[in-house]
Amino acid sequence: MEDLIDGIIFAANYLGSTQLLSDKTPSKNVRMMQAQEAVSRIKMAQKLAKSRKKAPEGESQPMTEVDLFILTQRIKVLNADTQETMMDHPLRTISYIADIGNIVVLMARRRIPRSNSQENVEASHPSQDGKRQYKMICHVFESEDAQLIAQSIGQAFSVAYQEFLRANGINP
Questions:
Q1: For the chain, what percentages of helix, strand and coil (3-state, to nearest 5) are there?
Q2: 65 burial level (CB within 10 Å; 0-12, 13-18, 19+)
Q3: Model-level pTM?
Protein backbone atom coordinates (compact mmCIF):
# COMPACT_ATOMS: atom_id res chain seq x y z
CA MET A 1 0.00 0.00 0.00
CA GLU A 2 2.80 2.42 0.92
CA ASP A 3 4.44 1.69 -2.45
CA LEU A 4 1.37 2.93 -4.33
CA ILE A 5 1.29 6.18 -2.36
CA ASP A 6 4.95 6.82 -3.29
CA GLY A 7 4.44 5.36 -6.76
CA ILE A 8 5.42 2.19 -8.61
CA ILE A 9 7.24 2.21 -11.94
CA PHE A 10 6.93 -0.45 -14.64
CA ALA A 11 8.85 -0.62 -17.91
CA ALA A 12 6.73 -1.01 -21.04
CA ASN A 13 6.63 -0.26 -24.74
CA TYR A 14 4.07 2.32 -25.77
CA LEU A 15 2.46 1.05 -28.97
CA GLY A 16 0.00 3.88 -29.62
CA SER A 17 -3.35 5.40 -28.76
CA THR A 18 -6.77 5.54 -30.34
CA GLN A 19 -10.15 7.05 -29.44
CA LEU A 20 -13.45 5.24 -29.09
CA LEU A 21 -16.98 6.39 -28.39
CA SER A 22 -18.52 4.77 -25.34
CA ASP A 23 -21.66 4.87 -23.24
CA LYS A 24 -21.08 6.27 -19.76
CA THR A 25 -21.33 2.91 -17.95
CA PRO A 26 -20.88 -0.02 -20.34
CA SER A 27 -20.69 -3.59 -19.06
CA LYS A 28 -17.39 -5.30 -18.36
CA ASN A 29 -17.83 -7.39 -21.53
CA VAL A 30 -18.34 -4.25 -23.63
CA ARG A 31 -15.22 -2.66 -22.07
CA MET A 32 -13.17 -5.76 -22.90
CA MET A 33 -14.43 -5.68 -26.50
CA GLN A 34 -13.47 -1.99 -26.67
CA ALA A 35 -9.98 -2.81 -25.34
CA GLN A 36 -9.59 -5.53 -27.98
CA GLU A 37 -10.78 -3.11 -30.67
CA ALA A 38 -8.16 -0.57 -29.52
CA VAL A 39 -5.41 -3.21 -29.76
CA SER A 40 -6.61 -4.21 -33.25
CA ARG A 41 -6.64 -0.59 -34.41
CA ILE A 42 -3.13 0.07 -33.10
CA LYS A 43 -1.72 -3.12 -34.63
CA MET A 44 -3.41 -2.33 -37.97
CA ALA A 45 -2.00 1.20 -37.87
CA GLN A 46 1.48 -0.21 -37.20
CA LYS A 47 1.17 -2.57 -40.18
CA LEU A 48 0.00 0.30 -42.40
CA ALA A 49 2.82 2.51 -41.16
CA LYS A 50 5.39 -0.16 -42.00
CA SER A 51 3.94 -0.80 -45.45
CA ARG A 52 3.64 2.83 -46.51
CA LYS A 53 5.98 4.49 -44.05
CA LYS A 54 3.19 6.71 -42.74
CA ALA A 55 0.57 5.99 -40.07
CA PRO A 56 -3.05 7.05 -40.40
CA GLU A 57 -3.61 10.36 -38.66
CA GLY A 58 -4.07 9.97 -34.90
CA GLU A 59 -3.87 6.17 -34.92
CA SER A 60 -0.27 5.27 -34.17
CA GLN A 61 3.09 6.48 -33.04
CA PRO A 62 6.36 4.59 -33.32
CA MET A 63 6.94 2.13 -30.48
CA THR A 64 8.53 3.99 -27.57
CA GLU A 65 10.08 2.61 -24.40
CA VAL A 66 8.26 4.13 -21.46
CA ASP A 67 7.97 3.97 -17.69
CA LEU A 68 4.43 3.65 -16.36
CA PHE A 69 4.37 5.52 -13.05
CA ILE A 70 1.37 4.41 -11.00
CA LEU A 71 0.28 6.40 -7.95
CA THR A 72 -2.94 6.60 -5.95
CA GLN A 73 -3.69 10.01 -7.53
CA ARG A 74 -2.62 9.51 -11.15
CA ILE A 75 -0.96 7.45 -13.81
CA LYS A 76 1.93 9.02 -15.67
CA VAL A 77 3.64 7.74 -18.78
CA LEU A 78 7.26 8.86 -18.93
CA ASN A 79 9.68 8.53 -21.84
CA ALA A 80 12.17 5.92 -20.56
CA ASP A 81 15.18 7.78 -21.98
CA THR A 82 14.39 11.40 -21.13
CA GLN A 83 11.90 10.89 -18.26
CA GLU A 84 9.72 13.55 -19.89
CA THR A 85 6.02 13.17 -19.14
CA MET A 86 4.23 11.93 -22.26
CA MET A 87 0.82 11.44 -20.61
CA ASP A 88 -0.62 12.24 -17.22
CA HIS A 89 -4.08 10.96 -16.28
CA PRO A 90 -5.71 11.61 -12.91
CA LEU A 91 -6.74 8.21 -11.55
CA ARG A 92 -10.39 9.28 -11.46
CA THR A 93 -10.42 9.57 -15.29
CA ILE A 94 -9.35 5.93 -15.79
CA SER A 95 -12.42 3.89 -16.60
CA TYR A 96 -10.95 0.50 -17.50
CA ILE A 97 -7.68 -1.43 -17.56
CA ALA A 98 -7.31 -4.62 -19.56
CA ASP A 99 -4.42 -7.02 -19.74
CA ILE A 100 -4.54 -9.20 -22.84
CA GLY A 101 -1.50 -11.47 -22.85
CA ASN A 102 1.49 -9.11 -22.74
CA ILE A 103 -0.66 -6.10 -23.77
CA VAL A 104 -2.10 -3.52 -21.37
CA VAL A 105 -4.90 -1.22 -22.50
CA LEU A 106 -5.49 1.85 -20.37
CA MET A 107 -8.81 3.56 -21.09
CA ALA A 108 -9.38 7.12 -19.91
CA ARG A 109 -12.36 9.43 -20.31
CA ARG A 110 -11.59 12.50 -22.37
CA ARG A 111 -12.58 15.83 -21.01
CA ILE A 112 -14.81 17.49 -23.54
CA PRO A 113 -15.59 21.15 -22.87
CA ARG A 114 -19.34 21.75 -22.71
CA SER A 115 -20.66 24.14 -25.30
CA ASN A 116 -23.97 24.55 -27.08
CA SER A 117 -22.50 23.24 -30.31
CA GLN A 118 -21.11 20.15 -28.51
CA GLU A 119 -24.48 19.43 -26.90
CA ASN A 120 -26.16 19.82 -30.29
CA VAL A 121 -23.70 17.35 -31.83
CA GLU A 122 -24.39 14.82 -29.05
CA ALA A 123 -28.14 15.38 -29.30
CA SER A 124 -28.11 14.79 -33.05
CA HIS A 125 -25.82 11.72 -32.78
CA PRO A 126 -27.03 9.75 -29.76
CA SER A 127 -26.06 6.10 -29.38
CA GLN A 128 -28.54 3.42 -30.38
CA ASP A 129 -30.33 3.47 -27.00
CA GLY A 130 -30.40 7.26 -26.71
CA LYS A 131 -27.70 7.54 -24.01
CA ARG A 132 -25.03 10.23 -24.24
CA GLN A 133 -21.72 8.93 -25.52
CA TYR A 134 -18.26 9.83 -24.24
CA LYS A 135 -14.88 9.83 -25.93
CA MET A 136 -12.44 7.34 -24.49
CA ILE A 137 -8.73 7.53 -25.19
CA CYS A 138 -7.21 4.05 -25.26
CA HIS A 139 -3.47 3.78 -24.69
CA VAL A 140 -1.91 0.46 -25.67
CA PHE A 141 1.29 -0.82 -24.02
CA GLU A 142 3.30 -4.01 -24.28
CA SER A 143 5.06 -5.45 -21.25
CA GLU A 144 6.00 -8.81 -19.77
CA ASP A 145 4.45 -7.40 -16.56
CA ALA A 146 1.06 -6.65 -18.19
CA GLN A 147 -0.95 -8.56 -15.58
CA LEU A 148 1.01 -7.03 -12.70
CA ILE A 149 0.55 -3.53 -14.17
CA ALA A 150 -3.22 -4.04 -14.41
CA GLN A 151 -3.33 -5.41 -10.84
CA SER A 152 -1.28 -2.47 -9.53
CA ILE A 153 -3.64 0.04 -11.14
CA GLY A 154 -6.58 -1.80 -9.57
CA GLN A 155 -4.83 -1.66 -6.18
CA ALA A 156 -4.19 2.07 -6.67
CA PHE A 157 -7.97 2.54 -6.99
CA SER A 158 -8.54 0.53 -3.82
CA VAL A 159 -5.93 2.44 -1.81
CA ALA A 160 -7.19 5.80 -3.12
CA TYR A 161 -10.74 4.88 -2.08
CA GLN A 162 -9.57 3.86 1.42
CA GLU A 163 -7.66 7.16 1.73
CA PHE A 164 -10.79 9.06 0.62
CA LEU A 165 -12.87 7.31 3.28
CA ARG A 166 -10.29 8.02 6.00
CA ALA A 167 -10.02 11.68 4.95
CA ASN A 168 -13.80 11.96 5.33
CA GLY A 169 -13.90 10.34 8.76
CA ILE A 170 -15.33 7.03 7.57
CA ASN A 171 -13.80 3.78 8.81
CA PRO A 172 -12.82 1.79 5.71
A1: 35, 35, 30
A2: exposed
A3: 0.78
